[in-house]
Design brief:
The protein is mostly beta strands and 142 residues long. 5% of the residues lie in helices and 41% in strands. The chain contains one helix and nine strands; from the N terminus they run E-E-E-H-E-E-E-E-E-E. Strands 1, 2, 3, 4 and 9 form a five-stranded antiparallel β-sheet that branches. A four-stranded antiparallel β-sheet has the order 5-8-7-6, with no helix packed on it. The two termini are 13 Å apart.
Amino acid sequence: MSKVKNNDTVKVHYTGKLTSGEVFDSSKDREPLEITVGQGQLIPGFENGLIDMEENEKKTLNIPSSEAYGDVRKELVQEVPKSQLPEEIKPEVGMPLVSKTPQGQEIQLVVTEVKDEAITVDANHPLAGKDLVFDIELVEIK
């Protein structure tokens, strides 16, 4: 039976959890995820965990934050004066915002604090700094 290697296109079902057991994403009620292994489409720990799997094989991947979304980077947390926000935005903790770099690249932000004259925003990935657990099932090697 063939085993997954780099550059194989595979279909996989997964359930992603925090180490607490809280589920943050799953493909169980959708089509399986299709990726080409080794192309950097997913976090390194997930892609590496697919190597040498066979069709219909199931396993659990314990992925440290360093092989997932990395550590929380303090430089990605900034305070922004409310005067720089569009008037129609009424910031609340947890609210997602989008900012643009001078080069036009969009950056996803989350409001983490609201003060009288400013807000604090965080551009870290929501799963940065967290170890992850994925239950995966290799559905197909194409």
